[in-house]
Sequence to fold (127 residues):
Amino acid sequence: QAQLVELGGGLVQAGGSLRLSCVDSGRTFSEHTVGWFRQPQGKEREFVAHIRWTGNDGTYYRDSVKGRFTISRDDRKNEVHLQMDDLKPEDTAVYYCAATVPKARGTPSRARDFPYWGQGTQVTVSS
Fold:
């Protein structure tokens, strides 16, 4: 069964960068809105960014990551990336990749808008 897999987490110092990748063998990402969420320890899961499918093109970010994080999609490799620059200790969390149903409308940012999820990857930013 197709599933999303997150790659690229790790430990980085504040001010550093990490690039997360989301891969899926069963879905064509250009037909789905793909989002990144994160869950800091002991806190609720929160939306980070999404990139919409090609017929509803665009990206959307939570305010605290605007200008630091960039979401992109590589249609040739069927991957979605989250480039995270100028990382801060408050970015520490488990990061999840998620996908909507095909050709979803609007600008989804709630976890319940995304029925498909990966297992998550830990990102730790040390001060």
